[in-house]
Design goal:
Helix content is 31%, strand content 13%. It is built from four helices and four strands, in the order E-H-E-H-H-H-E-E. A two-stranded parallel sheet has the order 1-2. Helix 1 links the parallel strand 1 and strand 2. It is globular, with a radius of gyration of 15 Å. It starts with 10 loop residues before the first strand and ends in a 9-residue tail after the last strand.
Length: 124
């Protein structure tokens, strides 16, 4: 039987897109008890939802790389100068897998909790 879901955090980040992933990373690094609320079934924000043909960055791909991590910059190699939606989403999942590494994402918009053994969007 699963325990009760935690209901109190010092900080709640709304959305697990580019900014939400960065924010939860920073908060966790600072030791702040934080979580992310995401309405989608997975992280990615715009890059999760927008899957229309031709969806891609409107700036060069490298400008979307998280520059706070030399390791990420060295390890990730963009396949295209203006990468498409699937690659953008792969990058965000790579970042989450590499840097956040917890296991729970609360999805309040659908009044449910989704568990991911793969990545964290929870600071614990």
């Amino acid at each position: 039987m699963m325990g009760e879901a935690k209901t109190h955090y010092e900080v709640i980040v709304v959305g697990a897109g580019v900014a939400g992933i960065y924010q939860i990373k920073r908060l966790v690094d600072l030791g702040i008890d934080a979580t992310v609320l995401e309405s989608a079934a997975d992280l990615g924000g715009t890059w999760y939802w927008n899957r229309y043909p031709g969806c891609r960055f409107d700036s060069e791909s490298y400008t979307y790389g998280f520059s706070f991590s030399r390791e990420l910059l060295d390890e990730w190699h963009w396949k295209e100068r203006f990468s498409d939606q699937p690659e953008n989403l792969r990058y965000l999942n790579y970042v989450a897998d590499k840097l956040i590494c917890a296991s729970i994402c609360s999805s309040t918009a659908r009044s449910r909790q989704c568990t991911s053994t793969k990545r964290a969007i929870d600071g614990k």
